[in-house]
Amino acid sequence: MFKRILVASDLADQSATALSLARQLGVETGAWIIALHVLAMPEALRPLAGPKFLADVAAYRKVLERQVAAAKERLEACIDKSGLNRTFTRCMVRTGAPASVIANVADELDADLIIVGRGRDGRLGPVAEHTVRLVGRTVMVAPVRRKR
User: Cα torsion at 71, 75, 78, 80 (round to 10°)?
Assistant: First the structure.
């Protein structure tokens, strides 16, 4: 059924449900799991591609490299905590506008299914909503686990 499942994680506790669903579906279908975290680039820096700001952008890139490394470590910890099999799981950290990056990675990897979490309060968050609108693929929005 599924060969590649892309699961987006914001590294918050709410993402655990999405990772758990990916694990269950991966076990049932034998699919590869791609766990993705997107570091949102600040709005103010997106248009700064011109040469006038190269020094500022270079400094920001150094900071961003450290943030990417830290995010990858946290995502790997989330993967381990969720019980995903590391043999069939790939970990990715990208930067940019989250929904656009999720859509691009889904296209790049030809993902059969995208799993995203809900917003922090249980409602459909902006990243989940934009992802659903952007992609021409199946998107599963994971429920938020209620504390008992």
Answer: -130
- Alpha helices, H only, 30-138: 54-82, 98-109, 126-134
Mean pLDDT, the chain, rounded, equals 85
Distances (CA, A) of 86 to 26, 32, 81, 83, 107: 12, 10, 11, 9, 23
CA angle, residues 18, 21, 22, in degrees to nearest 5: 85
Distance CA(52)–CA(141), nearest Å, equals 41
With tokens 């034998």, the residue in question is: 30
- How do residues 3-60 score in pLDDT, each as one tens digit? 999 999 998 877 888 999 999 999 999 999 999 999 887 665 555 555 555 566 677 7
Q: Please name the residue that has the structure tokens 């699961």.
A: 7
| 3-state secondary structure (DSSP) of residue 38 | strand
- Please, are residues 67 and 96 in contact by the beta-carbon 8 Å criterion? no
Q: Say if CB 98 and CB 133 are below 8 A apart.
A: no
